Amino acid sequence: MYNSSIVQITPSLASQISRQAPDILRNTTPVKYLDFLIANESSDLWFTYEGLVLTCLRTGDEKSANTSLQRLIDRFGADNERVMALAGLYKEAVTRDDGELYSILEEYDSILLRDPTNMPVSKRRITLLTSLGRSSDAISSLLKLLDSSPNDTEAWAELSDLYVAQGMYPQAIFALEELLLIHARLGEILYISGSIAKIGMEKVMTDSLKSFCRSIELCDNYLRGYYGLKIVTDRLLALQDQGNLSSEPGLSFSFQKLKDLNEVAVTKLSEIIRRSARNELGWQGYKMTELIAAKEILNHRSVSQSVTR
């Protein structure tokens, strides 16, 4: 549950990054030699060190991982929450038996006893419980975490996986439904925010699009996600037509990509409306208000195309 984007990179890419680690560390200045009063500090450097800790541990380069971790400790202190979690992860990776892992678990318990709100350490503790085969304890800890942080999508996803592993399928479905709602709601709020923003609208709209894409990635027949995908791509396509979108890489999607995503939304919404109307097995349960809204947006598209012709 810690920095999953790093964990998900391919083994070949992880190996490539790890091989470059010694050179990166040689070519960057340790914090004790930086004068923060005269030098501009780049956050990219610290994200690089964090990524190196994770990647080098994955490939077995404990020396580079330790050097990167030490530079983070020198900069932010050993009591920084993210650094504490990284330090715990490092200890877990270099241990040789379960006895040492249980000692680390006790360290996590001690930290959380002093500060129950330490989210990074709490997540590391849950991951360690899972790896030790204590799934029930991991589930209980996740539920406690979600009580204080109900919008933590990573925690809901982890909870669903644990429920599946335990054969608790209704609970797993509930956890995934919560995850879906968060992604779709986030997309909706970002869309509304982008609609009224005078500055930074493009990035907000792009983030909205990514949230809707994530929701339909999690559930292929999620009407609310496809509806959001349709309205946000409509908006971004209109802005591109007006020449109001940046060409900066990563800030927006290409015109063709937006058009393709828009067509995906139209096709899927049409299928959902058609098959739910027939009451086909697996296509029931959609809210009537959502089906009506989907029909309206598709009808609006048809009218717009007729006018254009």
UniProtKB/TrEMBL annotation:
Subcellular compartments: Endoplasmic reticulum membrane
Gene Ontology CC: EMC complex
Domain of life: Eukaryota
Record's bilayer topology term: Peripheral membrane protein
Chief location bin: endoplasmic reticulum
Aminoacyl-tRNA synthetase as UniProt keyword: no
Pfam families in alphabetical order: TPR_EMC2 (PF22890)
Entry-linked InterPro entries: EMC2-like, TPR-like_helical_dom_sf, TPR_EMC2
Entry coiled-coil feature ranges: none
Keywords: Endoplasmic reticulum, Membrane, Repeat, TPR repeat
Residue ranges occupied by any EMC2 TPR-like domain in the UniProt entry: 98-184
Annotated PANTHER family: TETRATRICOPEPTIDE REPEAT PROTEIN (PTHR12760)
Family according to the record: Belongs to the EMC2 family.
Record text on subunit structure and interactions: Component of the ER membrane protein complex (EMC).
Function statement: Part of the endoplasmic reticulum membrane protein complex (EMC) that enables the energy-independent insertion into endoplasmic reticulum membranes of newly synthesized membrane proteins.
Protein name: ER membrane protein complex subunit 2
Source organism of the structure: Golovinomyces cichoracearum
